[in-house]
TrEMBL record:
Domain of life: Bacteria
Keyword check for Transmembrane: yes
Topology of the protein relative to the lipid bilayer: Multi-pass membrane protein
Pfam families found in the cross-reference section: ABC2_membrane (PF01061)
Record-level Gene Ontology MF annotations: ABC-type transporter activity
Species in which this protein is naturally found: Actinophytocola xinjiangensis
Keywords: Membrane, Transmembrane, Transmembrane helix
Protein name in UniProt: ABC-2 type transporter transmembrane domain-containing protein
Signal peptide limits: none
InterPro entries, per the entry: ABC2_TM
Location of the ABC-2 type transporter transmembrane domain: 10-210
GO cellular component terms, A-Z: membrane
Regions that span the bilayer: 21-45, 57-77, 98-125, 137-161, 173-194, 220-241
Localization of this protein: Membrane
Length: 257
């Protein structure tokens, strides 16, 4: 177990270092973007209560985190291929699946930390209070978000390696979730026939659990949905990564697009 944890943390630490080097993208998606979302959201809802501010901040956190996952975590393997290091990743002594999951965890950890810091600073400057009735369960919800982002990053990173159209796929995935997952726009304001789209997005359920925890009534089925979807994302990502490894051995190339 300690060896597994070491591999995961080594991958996470390397990814955090990579994010510091490529800080421009991180600043846009994990700092500037949440500021814009937060100002728009707080302006659209005149209720300045702590409960309303907490709901807005939670929605902005998850929305910005999705954007960071799509543009950051999802690009891990494409970046490895561009830098010529993916061969070493796939053929190294350490289990490449653990390395990839560790990198995805590092990307999620860095994004969540940056986004939460940004939101806290903006709310402090605006003098807007927040209220969390169940801070312990709210923290559990944040850990679930971190785990789900790791699983999503693993899956999307493998998916993006299989296509030449990563940026286009990023845009195609990002905006529908912004609109349909109920993170900033309440689900009941979305046409009824589109609402089921939110059910397969773990962050939708994470928001329900976080909002409920903030109000003192954690939504346990929502937390269960986050866990189930996270396991599904991770399983699909690991299976796809295994396929990538087989293609490398069969074709002798990492270009599968």
């Amino acid at each position: 177990m300690s060896a597994v944890a070491e591999v995961l943390w080594t991958g996470a630490r390397h990814q955090l270092q990579t994010m510091r080097v490529g800080w421009r993208v991180a600043v846009i998606v994990a700092a500037i973007q949440p500021v814009v979302f937060l100002l728009i959201t707080l302006g659209a809802w005149p209720d300045g209560s702590a409960a309303a501010t907490t709901r807005s901040a939670t929605g902005v956190l998850l929305t910005a985190f999705w954007g960071a996952t799509v543009w950051g975590g999802a690009a891990i393997l494409r970046r490895e291929r561009a830098e010529g290091t993916i061969g070493a990743l796939l053929t190294g002594v350490r289990d490449p699946r653990l390395v990839l999951v560790g990198k995805a965890f590092g990307a999620s950890l860095g994004s969540v930390a940056t986004i939460m810091t940004t939101i806290a600073l903006v709310l402090a400057l605006l003098g807007r209070p927040v209220a969390v009735a169940e801070p312990g369960w709210y923290a559990v919800g944040l850990l679930a978000v971190l785990a789900s982002g790791t699983a999503l990053g693993t899956l999307l990173s493998c998916l993006f390696l299989m296509t030449r159209h990563g940026p286009e796929l990023s845009s195609a995935l990002m905006y529908p979730v912004f609109l349909l997952a109920g993170l900033l726009i309440p689900v009941d304001m979305i046409p009824a026939w589109l609402r089921p789209a939110a059910w397969v997005v773990s962050l939708h359920w994470a928001q329900r659990f976080l909002t409920g925890s903030a109000q003192g009534a954690p939504d346990w089925p929502a937390l269960g949905a986050v866990v189930l979807l996270t396991v599904g994302y991770l399983g699909a990502g690991i299976a796809l990564f295994g396929r990538i490894g087989r293609l490398v051995r069969e074709r002798g190339t990492v270009d599968h697009s």
